[in-house]
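> run fold Solute carrier family 15 member 2
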Amino acid sequence: MNPFQKNESKETLFSPVSTEEVPPRPPSLPKKPPPKICGSNYPLSIAFIVVNEFCERFSYYGMKAVLTLYFLYFLHWNADTSTSVYHAFSSLCYFTPILGATIADSWLGRFKVLSLIGLSLIALGTGGIKPCVAAFGGDQFEEKHAEERSRYFSVFYLAINAGSLISTFITPMLRGDVQCFGEDCYALAFGVPGLLMVIALVVFLMGSKIYRKPPPEGNIATQVVKCIRFAISNRFKNRSGDLPKQQHWLDWAAEKYPKQLIMDVKALTRILFLYIPLPMFWALLDQQGSRWTLQATRMNGNLGSFVLQPDQMQVLNPFLVLIFIPLFDLVIYRLISKCGIKFSSLRKMAVGMILACLAFAVAAVVEIKINEMAPPQPGPQEIFLQVLNLADDEVKVTVLGDENNSLLVESIKSFQKMPRYSKLHLKTKSQDFHFNLKYHNLSVYTKHSVEERNWYSLIIRESGKSISSMMVTGTTAVRFVNTLHKEVNISLGADISLSVGEDYGVSAYRTVQRGEYPAMRCQTKDKDFSLNLGLLDFGAAYLFVIANRTNQGPQAWKMEDIPANKMSVAWQLPQYALVTAGEVMFSVTGLEFSYSQAPSSMKSVLQAAWLLTVAVGNIIVLVVAQFGGLVQWAEFILFSCLLLVVCLIFSIMGYYYVPLKPEDIQGPADKQIPHTQGNMINLETKKTRL
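> ok
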């Protein structure tokens, strides 16, 4: 056959053509593979990423560990406000990743956002770090090492919890064991995590030369929004039925947007739809640092050989994570696989939800037991009142209501220890009570204002030949009343001291560590003496009256305003074990699932969407804490039931979800495309005759 014979018109591709002679290019050298860890398939670069994540999580969780008690004891907010602000902060930390992910995937790339924005601006840094660091670690693996990449996410989560484990144990010690300006050292507890952020930045930059840095792929977030908007508008414009139906509603954008983008958006929307039920799991998990910590403040942390602070109980979560991750990966999942059960990622996440439901059911049972063992608490339009008679003889006390009716009548001897508080009902949230005090032949009338849900002590004292009274509120730690005629300075520890004014001065409140206080050094202007305070136990509130009633010098008369906690904090262990097992099955699996199902151009965006579910979960807690009005055990039951319903919905959605294969989500950048250099004319499809 003549090779130059005239043929029919064909459609072909021109080869690259240059306007001038171009010497033939030498064959490109094979790309040098990235260095590996000890001959394995794990890139060396992930070591820097994992260490960076350890330091960053140490900083974040170390600060969060003491945050609730900082609100409660330092700023003197109530439990609901402390819980709400804690979860509002957590929610903000998980909302900002949307901004960080958009910048990473669209303009700067994951490496630049992580190092220059995320770690430099700590206030907004969590938005730059969270969506990028997990995805950036996944970028270091080649597609043929998918199994190693899956295990990387477990190692990554181990680093998170190793940082959390150490920080949640150390920062409460820095807060409670070190004193700054006579109080708990919150400055040091917040300062050490700040130092770890600097170390995180240094470690991350050390590996910058060996990182694989996928380039950003344009303003992806904007393209996604425009593509979805155009598909919806185009669909409604063509409702007449003249045009053929599309297989997917996003296919209506095909006339304007490339096929690859439409495929990526399809994958993205399928996963985002699956994310809708997820916030409820995080609503439960993140209450370890708020509601569960507040529960621990009402329990006894004395475990015999050592004593746990309430905010140190959170250390159980990362400690158990470090145990459970290898246990589940190497033992439990393999046993399930050998039994012939297909335990997919979505099934693991559903089981994790069920375990979290059980954890909150256990927390509700513990809360009920605490309430049974604890003294009753004043409810709405109620107060608890006790009377302390510091005069030298008996006083008859009558509490009068608004209509001069007698609400309480008691005769109290001098320095008589009252066995209990008396409950008084109010007509409004705040009210004035009138008191009639009969002392010898005198009758003294006085008035004091009270507010609902508070504990009050009416202190009666001598005033010349008559008597007077003052109302003291509060149930926190220790306080002192000084009956001496000289100011007393009291030292409660290495750096804890307080002054009590003369002539029935009342000290400020002070929180102290549990323990024996047999000889507390006290000073007046001309005399030193010591006071035996005895055992100060968990959860108790004490009032000490300094009086000189014997020849042995000033002594402390001890009153227990609130009895000590009797239920051991060890009873929180089952709920921590259940919720941590749920976290391992839900969160670790979800991280790897989000990365594996994400289109290559949207991995950080999908990671940010995953984190956004955490933000929404914290908002749920905030709303319930502020507007729920439930007792604590009922609130735990509510969350448990809500998650159970959500788990059922998620299971149905997961049943119909078809996971994408790697080749289905491979972007253009992953495919082999011929590369040319020089003054070349772009490749175009032409019609020509051979």
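The longest helix spans residues 146-177.
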